[in-house]
Specification:
Low-confidence stretches: none
Shape: rod-shaped
Helix content: 55-70%
Strand content: under 5%
Keywords: Membrane, Transmembrane, Transmembrane helix
Largest sheet: none
Radius of gyration: 29 Å
Structural class: mainly alpha
Mean pLDDT: 77
Number of strands: 0
Length: 73
């Protein structure tokens, strides 16, 4: 009976409106997406850094005085 009376009200009480479960799930979904996005970005940046370090390090088969050739195109 209270539900019918609540639905019959023409005026909406701003104090009783809450985001509820849908709002919580939306924020939780955004948080999960951001977590995996940051994790993926971290992996990509680590690959770029390790590639840059490998280019600046001496080649394994080269003598100690020579460095690996680097091309800047």
């Amino acid at each position: 009976m209270n539900t019918v009376l609540l639905l019959a009200q023409t005026e909406i009480d701003q104090d009783t409106i809450t985001p509820g479960l849908l709002g919580f799930l939306a924020i939780a979904f955004i948080g999960a997406v951001l977590y995996f996005l940051m994790k993926s970005m971290r992996t990509k940046l680590d690959n770029v850094r390790s590639g840059a370090l490998a280019e600046s390090a001496p080649a394994e088969g080269a003598p100690a005085g020579e460095r690996a050739e680097r091309t800047d195109d």
